[in-house]
Queue: 2 jobs
Job 1
Amino acid sequence: MSRTIVAAAAQLGPIARLDTRKAVVERLIALLGEAASRGAELVVFPELTLTTFFPRWHMTDPDEIDAFYETEMPGPDTRPLFETARRLKIGFYLGYAELAVENGVKHRYNTAILVDRNGEIVGTYRKIHLPGWDRPQPGRTAQHLEKYYFEPGNLGFKVFETMGTRIGMAICNDRRWPETYRVMALKGSEMILVGYNTPDDHTGHFDFDSLTQFHNQLSLQAGAYQNSNWVIATAKAGHEEGSNLIGQSMIVAPSGQIVAMATSTADEVIVAKCDLDMAALYRKTIFDFARHREPEAYRLIVETRGPVSD
Ligand code: CDT
């Protein structure tokens, strides 16, 4: 008997700086309802779902900064989302800015959680590949200051056994790095969930920026195919506070084929029935890791960060 899971990407259009959490959560609940009515059992929301993409600004006032972070999950504003998911029997991935206190010390992470169909948090991931800079860059109107607002995640790439499958999580820039998918695939993941906020005007180099959508597709399709995983990737999209965020949320099969893609840059749900045994097919054949991988030849990948001379 084949194993399937109906998965949805719930793309969000822009969120303004002054939009309240309550207003955003109402949008998420509407998307959850639509996904459920179309048979979805698992919904993926974007990176930093609850607020505008604030790393585009350099803020220095601690109170102003703290207002973008969650100190508890669920909290008073997000609890209705968990309750709705439990009632609809639908699991979800949610990205948000996390302010955590570990051993009495404050830490800030770009985080995603995985919630099962009973509304319980069953997995947490903290973004590892933080793009951008740790201080404002002179001459740039739109900054990308993720290294200023977050520390690299300290939980590694884990795989969570839940909802009848094995699920891994990644966040935005992680999707461009092959190591992200490979570590989770080695741990037996069958589905990788990704939320993102990707501006198409961030480098100022037209030759590069004009390929932003192509690079999104390329990374997600390669990650899915080379690692025999379903990839569910969800954008925060549209013209947000002066920045153009690409949409193109998509569901990619382990064959690398795109089986669903958003057509707008607004709130939009896409749904696909994912055959989990398709992942097994690729992993038993062309990507049978145990038979074909040669880790001795890859040592350098974990021994160095940057280029080395041979
Ligand atoms: N949020 C995020 O990781 N965005 C990046 C843009 C990088 S531009 C410095 C991305 O990889 O899409």
Job 2
Amino acid sequence: MALSGLMPGLMMDRPLLVIPLMQYAAAYHGDTKVVTQSLEGPIHRTTYAETYRRIGQLAHALVRLGIKPGDRVATLALNSWRHLELYYAVAGIGAICHTVNPRLSPEQICYILNHAEDCALFFDIPFAPVMAKVKSATSSIRHLIAMTDAAHLPGDGDFLAYEDLLAREPHDYDWPTFDENTAGQLCYTSGTTGMPKGVLYSHRALVLHGWGMMAACGLNVADTSLPVVPMFHVNAWGMPYGAPMVGAAQVYAGRAMDGPSLFALMDSEDVTCAQGVPTIWMGLIAEMRAQGRKPKHLERVLIGGAAAPVSMVEAFELEFGVEVNQGWGMTEMTPLGVVNTLKPKHASLSKAEKIALKAKQGRAVFGVELRIVDASGQLLPRDGASAGHLQVRGPWIAKSYYKETTSALTLDGWFDTGDIATLDGDGYLHITDRAKDIIKSGGEWISSVDLENAVLGHPDIAMAAVIGVPHERWQERPLLICVARGAAKPTVGDINTWLGGKVPKWWLPDAVAYIEGLPIGPTGKIQKNRLREQFKDFKLGA
Ligand code: ADP
């Protein structure tokens, strides 16, 4: 409905841009640390004040390389202070920082670089071997810059050294002001189904999302945060924007993401909170068990990207006193959608009830609207039981993909996440499946996520994935694929006895298969499409 007679507000019209975030951090939290386990070897230490000065130098260097507003500048890099500088300097001059996932194959990397028509590529030294392919298979890239100094420069004069570029430049940069809807960051989806698609984040979305993330996870000036989530995928969940906003210190692990390395870094740098996907936390929990303690100052972890198993929440909270908050989101959502915090009324719940609630994904953060609809688009009730297609709406959610002319939204303006979920009366979201992974048995849906979660509580099972296999009578039945923790390999009968009462009886898997390891994709998730391919000829017994 169009209203008439509206009165304009009389507030300043200052755009929401990313550079002011770092200006703020430099001015008010200038001595706060940014620490990296560097790829060259030693621990690297800097501050927000120094980071801002180097961002100015980098901006001059980019302009000298001929980078213009709207140009795409790619990074193929792990988490580090230099990657942080690129985030800000590239977007700050009006260009677009395009983070590319180094875990993709060289062919996929080149496809993405060509699709984005990047004009420069900044890479970390371990990825130098990919540059030969990049040179031969891409056409738009004019500059290849190794993110290191002259002493560690790979190649034979093939690349520029990042530190050499900066050395010649002044610190002060006259940052331009422009429309907050201008693009500042680009990230491609991992393309598990079909070709990867570019999600183009505006400055406005990045700033608002950073605020939303900080409000939701309670990061503050007393925190030292370790985002184990990669800066090469979905902006490390917005931490590089959020932490400077609240003056929290940051620690970057570089390549050292195994349990013992993470534990040591958390211990020595007094990390209070960390963010990552479940596969990362499995390593840390094993190390905490080996040492019989948690890293000294670790208070809380944010787990997202895939469902946090109940056994993982229990391990953190009950064994080690580390608070768990689960989060859910996706590339198209910058990525945050929901975070799991308990309500005051939940204080009276038993430990087990609290853990069960924490294993749900959580409640929407302000700025993200959620709805669940059935196959015909009808709204489903928030009763905690009606499962349907999860759709979202908000100022940091994509409306279309880079270079695609069509809208990515439903006719009434919502984004369909591809997830199947329930919402309960308190607004807790529970992801039961991705639409493509759901198992349809006798006209009912079996939640592969819930079934895996339950199986992971079994002491002999280290990893589990459930896929649907064809069945004459029931259409599909669940096949459980496991990695055993040790020598013991429980039969499907043993597992189902153990699962009794934990899941509905008709969900119990019809068979179990053991393999050495599950295929993990470039963003740390189990690749069920590969399992479906591997087990496509699997026949269930009578
Ligand atoms: P992709 O894996 O397609 O690259 P994202 O990295 O954007 O995409 O992952 C988004 C998807 O990951 C969500 O749609 C959802 O299926 C899954 N996901 C993210 N967080 C959670 C969570 N806490 N619990 C269950 N699933 C999650």
